[in-house]
Amino acid sequence: MTTSFETEQGAGVTAPAPAPGLAARTRGLRKVYRSAVAVDQVDLDVPEGAVLGMLGPNGSGKTTTIRMLLGLVRPTEGEVELLGRRMPEGARHALPDVGALVEGPGFHPFLSGRENLRRLAAAEPRLPSSDIPRAVEDALERVGLGAAAHRRYKAYSLGMKQRLGLAGALLVPRRMVVLDEPTNGLDPAGTREIRRIIGELHADGVTVLVSSHLLAEVEATCTHVAVLHAGTVVAQGELDELLESGSPGLLVSTPDGDKALETLRDNRIPGKLTPDGVRADLTTATAPQVVETLVRGGVAIHEVKRERTGLEDLFARLTQHETEHEGLPEVEEVRA
Ligand SMILES: Nc1ncnc2c1ncn2[C@@H]1O[C@H](COP(=O)(O)OP(=O)(O)OP(=O)(O)O)[C@@H](O)[C@H]1O
What we know:
The protein has 336 residues and is of the alpha+beta class. 33% of the residues lie in helices and 27% in strands. The protein has 11 helices and 17 strands. Helix 3 crosses helix 4 (132-142) and helix 4 (132-142) crosses helix 5. 40% of the residues are buried. Residues 33, 35-36, 38, 56, 58-64, 213 line the site of adenosine-5'-triphosphate.
């Protein structure tokens, strides 16, 4: 089945039917700059209504992928579909439904936050001019910039600039919101506010694509994750499934390894000896149950920690590679 897409000039072109259930999709996406392959063979699926975290170390291709999704950069090869439109040709039709915070929003340094937002709002095709003042004030309040709205953009901190960019993305109701490293420059309170806003968008059924180089941030906000490394997607899917991949285990540090193993086995909890004590399998028992069982069995416990899950382990290896390059200490790997 095929359907007709409009080009920027309005002429129809034949393209595959929009993928059902997907707000955005890329196939074989590749971007080559003169000096580097920024993105290579990226097949990304962003399910409708999901909060998808694009997770990757610096330089892994997150921003380039997002820019191609939004039609800001033309791919060297491959296809991009955004809200059922082929990009960049369908940009005029898809983009009014997409709010985006991408690197370096073009705000005017000598205008206030409010004046900058009004200029942005005037360019929103679906916002009648009589609604602009209300939409601007609502967006300013939503990102916590109401009190600083009169100040010039050039006097804003990095965090305030991020908030203004976010306000621009939220000027009108959207089907999809794309946020490139939205917590950059924000303090912990600002980070919590971004999480809250993402949660609200998700509750309203809006699809959110958010990039981050922090696993904890993706874990706190996302339903899905795509892990990028050196321009390619190395893992993709529902967050829970990826976190649970690999059998979960609890590492118990104890001088009584043999006694601990015997106690676990007496209580039908699979386990094995490790250099520091035992590893208890958590498929049949929870972590508190394992600890309680060992304590009741008279086992001395020095330390207990959860074994890294598949996603944590994968991401630790990727970021370890990155920190080695920077000459920083290696990320500690925990293995049974
Ligand atoms: N305009 C450009 N010209 C040349 N190389 C570029 C350009 N934009 C990106 N690159 C290169 O492409 C690679 C991917 O960059 P990109 O900004 O997409 O990564 P990222 O994951 O968003 O990184 P960060 O978290 O640091 O923003 C990097 O090696 C980068 O140097």
